[in-house]
Amino acid sequence: MLIAIDSQQEYVPARLAQAGDHYRCPACQQPVQLRQGTVIQPYFAHQAGTSCHAFSEGESQTHLAGKVQLFRYLSQWGTVTLEPVLPSINQRPDLLLCRGQQRLAVEYQCSPITNPRLTERNRGYARAGIEVIWILGPRYFQKQLRTRTVLRFLHQDQLTFYLPDRQVFVHRGGFEKADFQRLRFSQVVNQQPFTVVHQRPLIRLNIDRQRQKIALQLLQGRVNPRLVNYLYQEGRRLTQVPNWVLMGRNFGLKVANWHFRLVVLLWLERLGPGAGFQIDNLQQVLQSYFWPGFLAVEAVITGLLQELVDLKYLVLEEGRYRIKKLPAWQQ
Question: Would you state the torsion angle of the CA atoms of residues 89, 90, 95, 96, taken in this order, to the nearest 10 degrees?
Answer without folding.
Answer: 30
